[in-house]
Design goal:
Blueprint: H1 2-9, H2 14-27, E1 37-38, H3 42-58, E2 66-71, H4 78-86, H5 96-123, E3 129-133, H6 146-152
Parallel strand pairs: 1-2, 2-3
Length: about 160
């Protein structure tokens, strides 16, 4: 907002020209694009939706694809996820391993459902999404960052 503020205050002169040049540079998608980065969770997505609105509508700056960081791989199909989420979180079994396994699967299904909901909210923006996978363990070396580098290479 600074370039337009300076332009409003200085109708002519070198400061006005600098402000106009700066505004043109920022609005030129060949030189500048705003990269919004979010997590697939409710609050970060809500904040990103607002940031994109302000950048697009108020500031009128070009946007790059939106980066969604730490995406978990889907372990369950949509139908299995729905069945797991709708089942009661407790299972009648005398075997603790069965109850623990079901509890973990139920929790993962809920998590995957929330992630899918947040991705749908972001897709409604009409921006391309860059999907960066979650690393379950820290990489041992630079080569371990391959999945992240490959995802970000599309920017």
């Amino acid at each position: 907002r600074v370039p337009s503020g300076v332009s409003d205050l200085m109708p002519v002169g070198p400061f006005r020209k600098d402000a106009d040049d700066c505004a043109a540079f920022l609005r030129d998608p060949r030189s500048t694009r705003v990269v919004a980065v979010t997590l697939p969770e409710d609050l970060p997505v809500t904040e990103s939706l607002e940031i994109v609105r302000v950048v697009r509508d108020d500031l009128r700056l070009p946007l790059a694809p939106l980066v969604v960081n730490q995406l978990r791989p889907e372990l369950f199909s949509d139908s299995l996820r729905a069945r797991l989420k709708n089942l009661d979180a407790t299972v009648e079994s005398s075997d603790e391993r069965v109850r623990s396994t079901f509890h973990a699967a139920h929790g993962r299904a809920v998590l995957e459902g929330e992630q899918a909901l947040q991705i749908a909210r972001l897709e409604a923006l009409g921006l391309p999404l860059v999907r960066v996978p979650r690393l379950e363990t820290p990489p041992e070396d630079v080569a371990g960052l391959g999945a992240i580098v490959n995802a970000l290479a599309t920017l």
